[in-house]
Specification:
Length: about 170
């Protein structure tokens, strides 16, 4: 039997300044900078602080980066750890107190996914289509998948797959 996500949503996000934030609307927005610092200082390029998760992107800007959000009832199957074409993957905790997940940029643009059951989650951030940092093509081909499933206890962030291009960051 194939296990499938309970819900899937698609968002197109115009990335700005090389990162975007995830939160449920109650996170301390002032902590977004702390989450960015955690992302880069840890070498995970996905960081967390005060209810905010920051995802660093290899490209500085894009007009439309596809992001797929999946909600699972348990951890997604591990037989396919990152799926085809995924370059970087990190698991970390995110609590959703409002039933929504906001994807936001420093310019206050972004989108929301509503109808997610409230509670503590484990979040798996997968990124793919990464180009070398020196490749400043007009429109990057990056894409992201965010998988959420309920968690029963807090866990430390885990890097599952490392994109070698981060060594040049």
């Amino acid at each position: 039997m194939t296990i499938r996500p309970l819900a899937v949503a698609h968002v197109v996000l115009p990335v700005d300044n090389g990162h975007f934030w995830l939160h449920d609307g109650t996170g301390d927005g002032a902590r977004a900078g702390d989450a960015l610092d955690d992302a880069t200082a840890s070498g995970r390029f996905v960081g967390t602080a005060g209810g905010v998760v920051t995802v660093v992107t290899p490209s500085e800007d894009s007009t439309g980066t596809p992001v797929e959000v999946e909600v699972w009832q348990a951890e997604p199957p591990s037989g396919d750890p990152a799926g085809p074409g995924w370059d970087h993957e990190v698991d970390l905790d995110l609590d959703l107190h409002t039933g929504r997940l906001d994807l936001e940029l420093s310019t206050d643009q972004g989108g929301s996914v509503n109808g997610i059951p409230r509670g503590p989650y484990r979040l798996r951030v997968s990124g793919g289509g990464f180009a070398p940092l020196s490749d400043h093509s007009e429109e990057p081909q990056e894409r992201y998948r965010l998988r959420l499933w309920p968690r029963s206890c807090d866990e430390a962030p885990v890097v599952r797959i490392v994109w070698p291009g981060w060594e040049e960051y």
